[in-house]
Every structure is written in structure tokens, then in C-alpha cells.
């Protein structure tokens, strides 16, 4: 006897958590580790899909083509992760990416 089941689950909406007042988000210390945690470079590398997120290339690959400094809602990086559920990034990481972009997307 063989049983089959079919159902559709929607992924829960990931709402970025609020970071504490005065939090400074660093590209090097906070954003690039997100790319490592979610293994982004498996696809986003010099011979794969753009942007190239390999170490040393990630910032110049992202800004200004995928990140509009000061405006996360118009930045492909943020909208792809937050609204299109690409890689199901956790809410803290989304909040860090959003804050980094909204604060000017500096290479710090």
C-alpha cells in the first residue's frame, strides 16, 4: 500500500526585527557574515550568478547596482531577501541589511 499526500504551505512572512536605538551596522562585521551564514557564494561568485558575493568582491558588486544607499525599499538586495523570500534570511539579518542600507550603505 502506498500513500501520497499533497499540501501547500506558505512560508511565514519574515518581518525584520527592530534593532536597538543607536545600533551601528558594519558591512564587514555584520553584513558579509550573513553571506557566509546563508552560503550565498555557492551561487553568487565570479563564475556564477550576479552579484559576486565572494570575499573582497561583495561591496563593489552590490553598490550601486543592487543597493541604493539610503533607500532599502528600492534596493534589490533588500527587496529580494525580504519580499521574495530568497534564501529565507532570518529577521535579525534582514534588519541589519535594512539598517545598513538606510544608513548610507558604507563600506565600513
Number of domains: 1
- SSE order in H/E notation? HHHH
For the biggest sheet, the summary is:
none
Helix fraction, binned, reads 25-40%
Q: How big is the Rg?
A: 16 Å
Structural class of the secondary structure composition?
mainly alpha
Record field, number of beta strands? 0
Work out the helix count.
4
- The global form is globular
**Beta-strand level of the residues, as a percent range?**
under 5%
Mean pLDDT: 87
Q: Distance between the terminal alpha carbons, to the nearest Å?
A: 60 Å
Low-confidence stretches: 2-12
A few lines on this structure:
The chain has about 110 residues and is mainly α.
How would you sum up this structure, described in words?
It is globular and about 40 Å long. It has one domain (about 25-100). The model is unreliable at about 1-10 (pLDDT under 50). It is mainly alpha-helical and about 110 residues long. The chain has helices spanning about 25-35, 60, 75-80, 90-100. Helix content is about 30%, strand content about 0%.
Key features of this structure:
0% strand, disordered N terminus, 108 residues, mainly alpha
Amino acid at each position: 500500500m502506498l500513500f501520497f499526500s499533497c499540501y501547500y504551505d506558505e512560508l511565514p512572512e519574515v518581518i525584520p526585527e527592530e534593532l536597538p536605538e543607536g545600533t551601528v551596522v558594519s558591512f564587514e562585521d555584520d553584513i558579509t557574515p550573513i553571506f557566509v551564514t546563508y552560503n550565498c557564494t555557492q551561487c553568487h561568485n565570479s563564475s556564477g550568478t550576479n552579484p559576486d558575493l565572494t570575499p573582497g568582491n561583495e561591496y563593489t558588486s552590490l553598490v550601486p547596482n543592487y543597493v541604493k544607499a539610503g533607500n532599502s525599499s528600492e534596493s534589490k538586495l533588500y527587496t529580494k531577501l525580504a519580499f521574495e523570500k530568497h534564501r529565507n534570511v532570518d529577521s535579525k539579518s534582514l534588519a541589519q541589511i535594512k539598517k545598513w542600507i538606510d544608513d548610507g550603505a558604507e563600506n565600513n
